[in-house]
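Archive maintenance. Older records in this collection stored only the sequence; we are now back-filling the structure field for every entry so that each record is complete. The fields below show one back-filled record exactly as it appears after the update. Entries are processed alphabetically, and D-3-phosphoglycerate dehydrogenase is next in the queue.

ARCHIVE ENTRY
Title: D-3-phosphoglycerate dehydrogenase
Organism field: Goekera deserti
Length field: 313
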Amino acid sequence: VTSPAPVVLIAEELAPSALEVLGDGFDVRHVDGADRSALLPALAEAHAVMIRSATTIDAEALAAAPLLEVVARAGIGLDNVDVAAATARGVMVVNAPTSNIVSAAEHAVALLLAAARRIPAADASLRAGTWKRSQFTGVEVTEKTVGVVGLGRIGVLVAQRLAAFGVTLIAYDPYIQPGRAQQLGVRMVGLDELLRESDFITVHLPKTPETLGLIGADELATTKRGVILVNAARGGLVDEAALADALRSGQVGAAGIDVYATEPCTDSPLFGLPNTVVTPHLGASTSEAQDKAGTAVARSVRLALQGDFVPDA
Ligand code: MLT
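Back-filled structure field:
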């Protein structure tokens, strides 16, 4: 008697290359992971579930998945997975921690430049049939101070790229190894000093109980007036309502935002403001990053379900 093929539940859109790497021998099923009423019953027969950031695998989802052996996060952030609960159940959690770091860093730089030069607003204005050069005066990046909050894999790539613009780089990261920052030409400072001294602030931290609400109304009140802020990390690290207030008052000059406290998000207070550049969580949305993330975790799922050793992705 041959046992039925293990069920791999794909709960979000993955690169086609991920399915190729997964190969034959699995019963591949699809579900919209953001729809809980569809996800929970679909998990009942799943041996593996493959997700991005829109699917939450919490204790409730795990309880609905008695056969589950692997949660595969085709990306980096594990804030949508209850790793402790999974581990306690013996469910392996795999991700692809370097797959989209370059894409995320490039997107943060794109948001920073777009915010500094008001590109989306100018684009919309010209498309609407108006030619308003004086309304879209921006600021240069060169010779300014850029504060990087979180000097991990992505923060480092952002710092290296912005160095080419001739900026002074400062960073806040309580966990960085001594010496590493110096090598990069980045001066490490406390968060207070970073907020006070930066002309541009870009956030590159995971979402944890420690980092949630890190930059709120009190912190925004201490920045240089007109600072430009970028968040392509996670919603909630910068308080959205406080940021909207600061953008309205001019305390924050402009913001480039890719992530929101609740996603999907179609009604943030940031969307109605003229000095924001907003994208719908696109940091990792490049063909290269999706390829790398999808294939890395597909390989891990295949090995895990075959009972083989799963090396780090
Ligand atoms: C990640 O953590 O990898 C990103 O948020 C990208 C994604 O949504 O997959």
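Update note: The pocket of D-malate is lined by residues 52-53, 75-77, 100, 281, 283-284 (CB under 6 Å). The longest strand covers residues 252-257.
Entry marked complete.
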